[in-house]
Amino acid sequence: MASQTPVADTIRQKITTALQPTTFEIHNDSHLHAHHEPMKGVTSRETHFRLVITSEAFQSKMQPARHRLVYSLLKDELAQESGIHALQLRTMTPEEEAKRQAQEATAE
């Protein structure tokens, strides 16, 4: 049986294999953008994604380099006409994630 989420499945496989994340979230936000003009006539329900990735692979890389790394992994999906239209990224090292969690805990 064919997957109902082939683009998300591909994203998960590529990111997991290449970056071995300690935290990885995929949020399909396509339904929030379906009414936008560029989406008229597009039948894919997998066009807009928000990813949260924590990985050692981001160590010593600035945000633009981290994002380029993710974009390069997903270049085929970004290039396809019915592929990814928008990709929002939150990329962290394990230390940055721990610091963020500590800050959130003290803010509560």
UniProtKB/TrEMBL annotation:
<dbReference type="Pfam" id="PF01722">
    <property type="entry name" value="BolA"/>
</dbReference>
<comment type="similarity">
    <text>Belongs to the BolA/IbaG family.</text>
</comment>
<dbReference type="InterPro" id="IPR036065">
    <property type="entry name" value="BolA-like_sf"/>
</dbReference>
<dbReference type="GO" id="GO:0005759">
    <property type="term" value="C:mitochondrial matrix"/>
</dbReference>
<dbReference type="InterPro" id="IPR002634">
    <property type="entry name" value="BolA"/>
</dbReference>
<dbReference type="GO" id="GO:0044572">
    <property type="term" value="P:[4Fe-4S] cluster assembly"/>
</dbReference>
<protein>
    <submittedName>
        <fullName>Bola-like protein-domain-containing protein</fullName>
    </submittedName>
</protein>
